[in-house]
Amino acid sequence: MNAYEIYQEIDHSIVADMCQWIRENDKNLYNSAVGSLAANRKLRPIFIQKKKPVDQYVWLHKTLKLRTSDTVGEHLFQVWFMKGQQEVLKDFCDGMEIEHDGAGQVEGDLPKELAADKLTSTVDTLVGPHDPKLITLYLRVFNLQRPGGWDSLSEILSSDERLKLS
């Protein structure tokens, strides 16, 4: 599943939360994303920026569902998780025993395999204190970090009823 396909399935409230966080915490990234996406649609960025923030988020979500927006969409996910959702990253890395910098940034290479039993217990731990849709999104974005993803992660994403995007 590519980033644009994730946007096609994800609940709008999560995208709105992400857009709002980026707009408030990384204005340059937000403006750059709006500019790039507007240019892809042959629009001037000011057309989007004049809208109310809520309407901007609706437009962004609609535009991020397009294949041509895949790279921008994936980058937005990565920044939001790396800077705005560090607890999720840290908890996942800790559960999977992946070395990280204390804030969820992986140190060294990503593992070649993810043990299914460890993955199941980590998901169980994550779903408790966090919104299951947020965890599902994170796991899907994490699975994009390796060509073809990880078989065990793909399996749990398709079989665990708690891990649905919408």
Describe the structure.
With 166 residues, this protein is mainly α. It folds into 2 domains: 3-83; 86-159, no CATH class. The protein contains 10 helices and no strands. The protein has helices at residues 3-9, 12-25, 27-40, 45-49, 53-64, 70-84, 86-96, 116-127, 132-143, 151-159. 27% of the residues are buried.
What's the number of extended β-strand segments? 0
Helix content: 55-70%
> In percent terms, what proportion of residues is strand?
under 5%
Pairing-aware structural class of the strands and helices? mainly alpha
Count of helical regions: 10
Largest sheet properties = none
Radius of gyration (Å): 16 Å
What is the mean pLDDT?
92
Q: Give the oligomer, counting copies of the same chain as homo and different chains as hetero.
A: single chain
- Coarse morphology: elongated
Q: How are helices and strands ordered from N to C?
A: HHHHHHHHHH
| Count of discrete domains | 2
Distance between the amino and carboxyl termini: 15 Å
Q: Could you name the ranges where pLDDT drops below 50 across 5 or more consecutive residues? A: none
Overview features:
0% strand; 2 domains
Task: Please outline what is shown here.
With 166 residues, the protein is mostly helical. The chain folds into two domains: 3-83; 86-159, no CATH class. The protein is built from ten helices and no strands.
List the helices and strands and how they pair.
Elements: H1 3-9, H2 12-25, H3 27-40, H4 45-49, H5 53-64, H6 70-84, H7 86-96, H8 116-127, H9 132-143, H10 151-159
Helix pairs in contact: 1-6, 2-3, 2-5, 2-6, 7-8
